[in-house]
Amino acid sequence: MKPIEDIKPLLETPKKVVITMHQKPDADAMGSSLAMYHYLRQKGHEITVISPTNFPDFLKWMPGADLVVDFESSQDKAMSALEAVDLLFCLDFNALYRTKALAPYLEQLKSIRILIDHHLEPQPGFDYGVSDTAASSTAQLVYETLYKLGEEQYITDEIAQCIYAGAMTDTGSFRFASTSARVHRMVADLLDRGLKHELIHQAIYDNFLENRLRFIGHSLLHRMEVFYEYNTAMMAIPYTDLKRFDLQTGDTEGLVNFLLSIQGIKMAALIIDRREEVKLSFRSKGNFDVNTFARKYFEGGGHFNAAGGRSTDGLERTVQRFIKAMEENEDLLQ
Questions:
Q1: Same structural domain, 40 and 146
Q2: Residue 333 placed within a domain
Q3: For residue 249, what is the DSSP state?
Q4: Domain identity same for 182 and 308
Q5: Distance from C-alpha of 34 to C-alpha of 61, rounded to nearest angstrom
Q6: Do residues 200 and 251 both lie within one domain?
Q7: Mean pLDDT per 10-residue run, the chain (334 residues)?
Q8: CA 298 – CA 287 distance, rounded (Å)
Q9: Is residue 6 included in any domain, yes or no?
Q10: Per the count of CB atoms within 10 A, which of 77, 215, 286, 314 is most buried?
Q11: Prediction pTM value
């Protein structure tokens, strides 16, 4: 894979560009993709941003979010863009399977593939890109890419908003270990450019419905288990809870962090029955590697202290598998 800055000659003449992200995109995936969209649009390119699935309502304030094509609901429009694409940008994922039903179509493309991502162990097959696991977020890498290209003059307020949203959420509001001096320097630069950061925080964190708060209370009271001998907390959410509280995409975002806030807990697991499969989210403190844990037991991966996985075994069986895996890692969890 050639360095990301080597794409500059490719961007000097208008191209047909597709930007895509992982399924069920979060603020980093959406923010980094839309930041890149706003940059490339200024350069005169024809751009289509494709999300493999729908995305949370609390991200729909982002500049350009109304232009994002949902592959599941607008497949014809997405396919039309893919059939003509010159440059494919893959943001906030590093393995095509993370784009769900979109993956087989991306695999067949003959276009130039460009990766911008911060997850561990990227798959081969990208022509250009940056894969930096030390970065706080893909949004940060988009920001740094613009500087590497010598194109920082194109950072508009729209781009700044998207970048800040991605970095803020992926760092847990700038409290995770990934919040490096690089991140603070970036934020200072965005503030110097006039960014109104408090409005972004309100749009993402203070924009939920009452039912989500009641769901969180119900889950903490009835679905949480704490295994103090393993320094682990788990929450298992049945599909009936999702229906009872009428949850929408993104409503469980951040729930796993409540578990990690318990004193002495080193690993937190959120296990949700999504009906088509069971989804798992893992968080950890210190030296417990949930990326390796997710890859070994649940066909997943991610970062050292934040990862995800999946299971087709049903909720009860998946919980049993998790408990067994936790017990096998007792020494590492001490």
A1: yes
A2: no
A3: T
A4: no
A5: 12
A6: no
A7: 97 97 96 98 98 94 98 97 97 94 95 96 94 97 98 98 97 92 98 97 92 96 98 98 93 93 97 95 95 95 92 97 97 96
A8: 20
A9: yes
A10: 215
A11: 0.90
